[in-house]
Design brief:
Elements lengths: L3 H11 L6 H5 L16 E5 L3 H13 L4 H14 L20 E6 L5 E7 L5 H11 L4 E3 H10 L10 H13 L19 E6 L5 E7 L20 E4 L3 E7 L1 H7 L1 H10 L4 H15 L8 E7 L4 E5 L5 E6 L2 E6 L1 E2 L4
Parallel strand pairs: 3-4, 10-13
Antiparallel strand pairs: 1-5, 1-11, 2-3, 2-6, 5-6, 7-8, 8-9, 9-10, 11-12
The chain binds aspartic acid.
Amino acid sequence: MYNRRKFIESAAALGIIGLLPSAVLAGTKSTLNNSESPPLPIILSTWSHGIAANAESMRILENGGTVVDAVEKGVMIPEADPNNRSVGLGGFPDRDGKVTLDASIMDQHGNAGGVCFLEDIVHPISVARKVMEETPHVLLAGDGALQFALENGFKRENLLTPESEKAWLKMIMEKNYEPRINWEEKHNELHDTIGLLAISQSADIAGACTTSGLGGKIRGRVGDSPIIGAGLFVDNEIGAATATGMGELVMKTLGSFLVVEFMRNGASPQEACEKAILRIVDKVNGYAKYQIGFIALNKKGEIGAYSLQPGFNYALYANGKNVLINADSYFPK
Ligand code: ASP
């Protein structure tokens, strides 16, 4: 397994398997010593937009918010950012020029909610939370999800910013509808979900995942992010995981559930993420064309991250520091 040895050496040096191996490699210093468990709370999220999301999440926890408040409010930051091409407002549209959003949320009691193929609402994560808390259902889709949002006071807004429209027109001109991989810098704007996991001071775990999905997707396409067990899974007794990348590969392997099940069976979060990537390699045809990244944390606050292709990074807020870390990957750089 690529980088396995490097990972084990780094983790061993820290004394904490699964915590910050890449941070050490990237020169980010851990303040943990060998005998300590990482102090809680800890926030972990995908990609560089995770830094601002983590900061908001931590602020919510420090001000007495619940862990589910923390994950919701955290991911609302990239959702509202018009410059973020892959989440919420300004998200890259589908093939027909419509921004359609997917989101899911789970709390520490095993409750879950999601919305998919939702249009015109800046904060799908908050609609997902309403589905979780105020309906007997888990997932609402399309027009029904929009109707539910409007009935619950959400405002209708055009999510297609001039910049996202320009990017869409360019894609149309190029007639390039190929789903793109996101490990190359220039493709980063096409799909980069934010998945955010938090463990509170009292070791309660929640997670949120929100995205505009794959840029240029066929209208009606729904990815892994709103599907509980695929893009997100939380079991408060074990840990949590979330995914980013080409959602179809994650859906075919129920990736986030799989990561949590590996942890249930004794794997560290790092090992669990690696095993879930290997499952994709073993089972999904054509995997080598795509990027997938997983992040995970367990009940002890140990964390893990791993991707199929190089280029995946994640934001970790622990020990008072909020840092961006390059994940190890199955394929070498
Ligand atoms: N997983 C998302 C999807 O397939 C996109 C991403 O994370 O890049 O919709």
